[in-house]
Amino acid sequence: MAKSLGSSTNIIIRIEIDKSKCTFAQVAQTIGESGGDIVAIDVIRSSGTVTLRDLTVNVFDGSVGDRIVGRLNQIEGMKVINVSDQTFLMHLGGKIEMQPKIPIRNRDDLSRVYTPGVARVCMAIHEDPNRAFTLTIKRDTVAVISDGTAVLGLGNIGPRAAMPVMEGKAMLFKQLAGVDAFPICLDTQDPDEIVRTIVAIAPGLGGINLEDISAPRCFDIERRLTEALDIPVFHDDQHGTAVVLLAGILNSLRIVGKKLEDCKVVLCGIGAAGMACTDILISAGAKKVIGVDRQGALVRTTAYENEAWNAYAAKTNPELEEGALADVIQGADIFIGVSGPGVLKRENVEAMAKDPIVFAMANPTPEIDPDEIEEIARIIATGRSDYPNQINNVLCFPGLFRGLLDCRASRVTENMKLAAAYAIAEVVSEDELSELYIIPSVFNDKVVPKVRDAVIDAAYADGVARRRDFRDKK
Ligand SMILES: NC(=O)C1=CN([C@@H]2O[C@H](COP(=O)(O)OP(=O)(O)OC[C@H]3O[C@@H](n4cnc5c(N)ncnc54)[C@H](O)[C@@H]3O)[C@@H](O)[C@H]2O)C=CC1
Ligand SMILES: CC(=O)C(=O)O
Ligand SMILES: [Mg+2]
């Protein structure tokens, strides 16, 4: 049976059983029949007549948990005392905190880290602003900034609801690349105000990672910030996604023995991620990309209200194919989804060319359930960690920013993105490459250093690195 594409999680159900009225076997059977898997049992207390147990139960979405609890409460002699969800428990009080690097043990320390000693350091930076990179957190710090308008595939859920994603990105920055990241959610959706606010907080930062800001506003916001600031600005949903996508496509093509320039690529969802994925594919040699959004394929013979779509249509769909996804996917070699759940049907994949490559990357629910097309698609990738081939921008942003910070780059260049994509693809060796392993895992410790080094080389080649070249000393 195909597994549900909700978000799998463990819940802990504390139950009290009156042993004279019901058995644990009844409880286990009820949980199994309701769609839960018991993965652990802890006996908290047991007396002659009553036992108190914590059951850790894996469920594929919250509704299964509700069903289990409802049915358990119907068993005579059984009482559900409490239910907790491990995912929610991991979020209690937020997921990150700020820690000093050195303790303040005495007056002497105090007078150095704070006033009066700190004043000399302030003046040193005042006289030479570049020293902010060595004497403040600027060297290792970025901000992950969202306005909450396009959070994963959940839409415009606002700045408070966006915060858990931004905290998650901050954790990944630190754990994978030693980059400190402030998660910042702005209570404005006005591009002018967003730009003004970010420019105003930039002095203490070494880079800006824009996240989950909807298209087409994100294009203008990123461009204006790049012009205004002397630190790199990177919209992760555009370029991080594009970099990892290209890495996955390059390795998939090695398996099916096709060349990108010969492939028909159909890309669904022409928003932030879709635009950038198309651009990087074209930079890497793709000649025939067709973009599809809600109203069908984008063609240059139509005038769109969205200016970004007019520019998009001008550089794609060379044969002016029109119609819905089902029409234009005929004979396609590659499908890329950065749209929403359920957009792709099994029959669409059946209509693709031999050895279909399907990247259904919408989060948290992809464009098609991979189980539905397991036997007909040659290669399947999603954005999720519970299927093989996770195409997620987390493979890019930690190493990319580590490289940008280490060479004090002033901006992100096109060459950096291509170099990062090739670096990620190369982590998978010829021996390892297979339909189920086209992209390295997030936990593969070769990814961050390879991406970092590739970005640094590109930064020096493009003349945007401001630190004296240190590469020979590595
Ligand atoms: N796996 C990964 O690393 C990443 C995945 N994504 C996913 O890609 C999706 C889009 O993200 P963004 O580009 O940031 O959002 P966005 O809001 O900028 O763009 C989404 C586009 O998809 C279109 N769309 C939505 N439903 C559609 C449908 N049923 N048919 C055709 N077009 C449809 C929208 O009209 C819009 O143009 C989200 O689900 C997001 O989670 C985004 C970034 C990274
Ligand atoms: C992965 C990511 O950034 C997104 O789905 O928006
Ligand atoms: Mg995102």
TrEMBL record:
Q: Which cofactor does it need?
A: Mg(2+); Mn(2+)
* Record domain Malic enzyme NAD-binding: where: 238-460
One MF term from GO for this chain?
Answer: malic enzyme activity
Where do the catalytic residues lie? Y114, K169
Task: Give me the residues that bind (S)-malate, please.
Answer: N363, N392
Q: Does the keyword Oxidoreductase apply?
A: yes
Q: PROSITE patterns from the xrefs?
A: MALIC_ENZYMES
* Domain (Malic enzyme N-terminal): residue spans on this chain: 93-226
Residue positions binding a divalent metal cation: E211, D212, D237
Keyword check for Metal-binding, yes or no: yes
The UniProt keyword set, sorted, is: Metal-binding, Oxidoreductase
Q: Which domain of life is it from?
A: Bacteria
Q: How is the cofactor bound?
A: Divalent metal cations. Prefers magnesium or manganese.
For this protein, the record's PANTHER family field holds: NADP-DEPENDENT MALIC ENZYME
Q: What does the sequence similarity comment in the record state about its family?
A: Belongs to the malic enzymes family.
Listed name of the protein: Malate dehydrogenase (Oxaloacetate-decarboxylating)
